[in-house]
Amino acid sequence: MTGKPILTLADAKRIAAAAEAEAARNDWRVVIAVVDDGGHLLYLQRSHDTQFGSVETATMKAHAAVAFQRPTKASEEAVLSGRLIHLALPGVIPAEGGVPLVRDGVVIGGLGVSGVRSAQDGQIANAGAAALAP
């Protein structure tokens, strides 16, 4: 029997540390959320001076990245190009900063970042996701 790859707490902490390093390098204060493949929160960290609204936003971005198995930037671009149907899809967050976490070609979780501009959230999320690479 072959088991599917999973996202461990150690993975989540490593991903969050890489994301935090990118944020710190740029003096950005953010919330970083990591969810498992079912969209359930596995790990969350918040800079002490980040607005509390970013907690839910980061978590929702991570969840959306898993649910739709693509970066939330794709929904942002779709809305900006006039495909407003994306605004009606349950769980869609049309703002960059959520990315799926992939191991062996399988989505094993999601990473969401919130607290700065959308593109900066995306930059941080991509840096975090890169830590999952072998």
List strands and helices in order, with pairings.
Blueprint: H1 9-25, E1 31-36, E2 41-46, H2 53-67, H3 72-80, E3 98-103, E4 106-114, H4 118-130
Give a concise summary.
The protein has 134 residues and is α+β, with helices and mostly antiparallel strands. Helix content is 40%, strand content 20%. Strands 2-1-4-3 form a four-stranded antiparallel β-sheet.
Strand order of the largest sheet: 2-1-4-3
Our Rg estimate from Cα atoms comes to 14 Å
Give the distance, in angstroms, between the N- and C-terminal Cα atoms.
Answer: 23 Å
| Helix percentage | 40-55%
Structural class: alpha+beta
**Beta-strand percentage?**
15-25%
What does this structure look like?
With 134 residues, the protein is of the alpha+beta class. It has one domain (9-130): Haem-degrading domain (Beta-Lactamase), CATH 3.30.450. The chain has four helices and four strands. The protein has a four-stranded antiparallel sheet with strand order 2-1-4-3. Helix 1 (9-25) crosses helix 4.
